[in-house]
Amino acid sequence: MTLRIAVIPGDGIGVDVTAEAVKALTAVSDAAGKSVRMTPFEWGADLYLRTGVTVPEGGLKRLQQEFDAILLGAMGDPRVPDNRHAGEILLGMRFKLDLYVNYRPVKLLSERLCPLKGVGLADVDFTVFRENTEGLYVMMGGNFKKDTPDEVATEVDVNTRKGVERIIRHAFEFAKRTGRTKVVMADKSNVLVHAHDLWQRVFKAVAAEYAGIEAIHLYADNLALQMIRRPGQFQVVVTCNMFGDIVTDLGAALQGGLGMAASGNIHPGRLSLFEPIHGSAPKYAGTNTANPMGAILTAGLMLEHLGWLEEARRIEDAVRWAVEQAKTTADIGGKLGTREVGDAICERLRG
Ligand code: IPM
Ligand code: MN
Q: Is the CB of residue 102 less than 8 Å from the CB of residue 131?
C-alpha cells in the first residue's frame, strides 16, 4: 500500500526542514521496500501575497479525499503582519478537520541535550495532550471603543463538555494502551472557576472509568515548576489549548530546544496533520542553518500514527544516532548545515 502524504512546507525555515523530512521519508520507505507518495502544496505567505488565497477553494475536501496524512513545515512571515494566512491555514485545519488532539511527546534523545543538571533519558519521557479545537483559540471576542483611552478588549475562553471530555478520555486511553500508570491534568480551576471547574468535574468522572491509572491534578503554574524540578514524575499530561501551547515550548527546551520537538494534530481515525513545534524563523530561512530534527521526528510520528511502527522507530533511532555522533546543527552544538544533517540521517536510514 502506498502512503499518500500532502506536504505543506509553508514559510521560512518550514521549507528547509520539510525538504529534509521528505528525504527521510523517502529513505526509510525505500529501505523497507515500501512506498510513500508525497504531493507538495504551496499554501503559505508567498501564495497569499501573490493571489490573496490562503486555503484554496475545496482545498480541505481535496486533502480529505486524496491523502492519508498532512505534513506541514511552519507558518508565519513578516510580510503578512497579522499572519492571517497562518491562522487560516494552520488553525483552519485544526478547527475544520476537527483535529482535537495535539499530541506532543517530550522525549530526551541524549543527556547532552537537556539544559537541566543531572537529568537522564528516563527523566524526560512523557507525552502532553493539548486540547486543540477550543479554549482561548476560538477567536471569539471583540473590541469596544477601539483605539481610544477607554478601549475594552475581550477574548472568550470556550470550553465544552464534549471538547473537554474527548481530550481527557484520549489521554487515559493512550495511558491504558501504552502501559502508563499516571495521568496529570493541569488547569487553573482556582481562578477560572467556571471553565476549569468543568475540566475538574470531567477529569474526575473520566478518571473513575480507568481503575488502574492514577489521576493527578496540578495547577498549570505548578506544572511548569514541576516540569523543571522533577520532570521524571510525568508520564501523560492533559491540558487546555493555551496552557498546552505554553508548556510544550517548555517541554521542547527539556529536549534540547524547539529544533528537536515534534507534534501531531490528530482526530483518531481521520485525516491528521503533523508539524514540528517550532515556527518559521524567517531570519534563518534558506540559510541552511535550521535544525531539521524536529521535522524529521515529526515525520516519524506521522508514520507511527499511520501504522508504520518499524519505520517510525527507525527514524527516531537514526536521529538519536545523529545526535550521538554530533552530526547536528549549531543550535544543539554541532557544525553541520540543515541539508548535511538530513543527509547523515538518510544515510543511516538506508544503511
Ligand atoms: C504551536 C504554535 C501555534 C499555536 C501558532 C503558530 C498559532 O505556537 O503550534 O504551538 O499557538 O498553536
Ligand atoms: Mn506554540
A: yes
